[in-house]
Specification:
single chain; mainly alpha; Arc Repressor Mutant, subunit A; 53% helix
Length: 96
């Protein structure tokens, strides 16, 4: 006679987590499919997360023309490459 374990929410979550982890391990980390899904243009909200700043701080930087933007009518986007360039230009060397 087969003995069954009770099904609980924790056991379901563990099973799903294991399945997701197995799928992630099976995909190559540098696959071109995942790289092509990363957007080049970010919204102000997304750029704020990328820069670890508040949305308001990024809006102030845009209005002060400290960050270059791509405009589509009233919509404003920030290019990831330009954000990376801005980070590089504003990086200060550490004192050793």
């Amino acid at each position: 006679m087969e003995r069954r374990l009770p099904v609980t929410l924790d056991s379901i979550i563990d099973t799903l987590a294991s399945a997701v982890a197995a799928k992630l391990r099976a995909e190559p980390s540098g696959s071109s499919a995942s790289a092509s899904l990363a957007p080049r243009l970010l919204t102000v909200d997304q750029a704020a997360v990328y820069l670890a700043r508040s949305k308001e701080a990024v809006q102030h930087m845009v209005s002060a023309r400290r960050l270059p933007v791509v405009r589509d009518g009233r919509r404003v986007f920030l290019d990831v490459r330009e954000l990376d360039r801005w980070i590089g230009q504003n990086t200060e060397p550490a004192e050793i």
